Amino acid sequence: MLKAIFLSIVFLLSISLANAQKRGVNNDPYSMGKGKRPYEMKGRKEPRKPLVTFEDCSRWIIETKKAQVDLLRSEEQPLYRDYNGKLIFTPSAKKCEVTLKYVKPLTSP
Predict the structure, then answer these.
(1) How do residues 39-73 score in pLDDT, each as one tens digit?
(2) Is residue 44 a part of any domain in this protein?
(3) Which of the two residues, 105 and 12, has the higher pLDDT score?
(4) Structural domain includes residue 82
(5) Residues 67, 90: contact at Cβ < 8 Å?
(6) What single-letter DSSP state applies at residue 25?
(7) Residue 37 and residue 76: Cα distance in Å, rounded?
(8) pLDDT value at residue 68
(9) 3-state class of 40 per DSSP?
């Protein structure tokens, strides 16, 4: 009986560790400092207003299965904007999944 309870607890813990959901964060503890915009991007303007950006990574939800993933706001490689998203991905199995979702549903203009 005790063995069955122990195995049930281990099974439930493995499920909760295998599937995770969290939000992105707006600070990058691994930052290598502020990067320079590539020379190809200097003076360029975005051709249209983007539907989403990574200016506030806390607006993104990260869902994972069998992986450890962090979404960080970074300024290491700026393109059009000062900030972009930096995804740090560590799989814990050969088959894993990562899904990024925006907090609120997006509508197409």
Answers:
(1) 998 888 888 888 889 999 999 999 999 999 999 99
(2) no
(3) 105
(4) yes
(5) yes
(6) B
(7) 9
(8) 92
(9) helix
- pLDDT, average across residues 18-35: 87
Query: Which domain, by its residues, includes 79?
Result: 16-29+52-103
Residue 60 within a domain: yes
Name residues whose C-beta falls within 8 Å of residue 73's C-beta, 6 or more positions apart in sequence: 24, 25, 26, 27, 28, 54, 55, 56, 57, 83, 84, 85, 86
CA 32 to chain centre: 18
Does the pLDDT value for residue 5 go beyond 70? no
Distance between CA atoms of 72 and 87, rounded to whole angstroms? 6
pLDDT higher than threshold 70 for residue 76: yes
**Count of domains for the chain:** 1
Closest CA to 69 of 44, 97, 94, 45: 97
77: in domain: yes
